[in-house]
Design goal:
The protein is mostly helical. Helices cover about 50% and strands about 5% of the residues. The chain is built from five helices and two strands. It has a two-stranded antiparallel sheet with strand order 1-2. The relative contact order is 0.19.
Length: about 80
């Protein structure tokens, strides 16, 4: 899942270590989230969003899924 964690961290002039310490996780966790190698738990996602004062949707970008082929076409006769 794409995210803007690095951007928000930079806006607050925080290192990965600083942020990790404030949230009670490891620097490696923050690094893995930023590099999209790890999707945080819902609890950690909320902690991150709350810390930066934004919504989860502002911090994490859910990529669109392919259109469901089971959906009826709008042009059916």
């Amino acid at each position: 899942m794409k995210n803007k964690l690095k951007v928000f961290r930079a806006m607050h002039d925080l290192t990965q270590e600083d942020l990790a310490e404030k949230l009670g996780v490891t620097r490696q966790t923050i690094n893995a989230i930023e590099k999209q190698r790890y999707n945080p738990s819902l609890e950690l996602a909320f902690k991150l969003a709350d810390f930066f004062g934004v919504t989860i949707e502002e911090l994490f970008i859910h990529s669109e899924r392919p259109q469901n082929q089971n959906q009826p076409d709008s042009e059916e006769s």
